[in-house]
Amino acid sequence: MLNIILRLPAIKDATGYSRSTLYSMIARRQWTQQVRLGPRSVGWPRREVEALNSARIAGRSDAEIRELVIELEAARKTKIYGNDNPSTR
Questions:
Q1: 35, β-bridge pairs
Q2: What is the pLDDT of residues 14-27, one digit of tens each?
Q3: Which residues have a Cβ under 8 Å from the Cβ of 12 and sit 6 or more positions away?
Q4: Could you state, in order of their start, the residue ranges of all structural domains in the chain?
Q5: At how many degrees (to 10) do helices 19-27 and 8-15 cross?
Q6: SS3 call for 47
Q7: In which region does residue 35 sit, left (phi positive, over 0), alpha (psi from -120 to 50) or beta (all else)?
């Protein structure tokens, strides 16, 4: 399976968030940490962006979003996005 990394302009287009709002959300644990792609570039896994957008659309609370962020970040360390993706709950 192809893991696609989205850069900041794509995140802004997909969410409508500004750069400062996105980084504020990261600080509040309402968005996942960025993935370092190189010395001066970062991005976010597309599956995480889709999961977070879906959670917002579904009306999840900020506390539920924080739980999802923790799950998504933990999934990065334990597996390479298999069939048991946390976004499918």
A1: 43
A2: 999 999 999 999 99
A3: 18, 19, 22
A4: 5-82
A5: 90
A6: helix
A7: beta
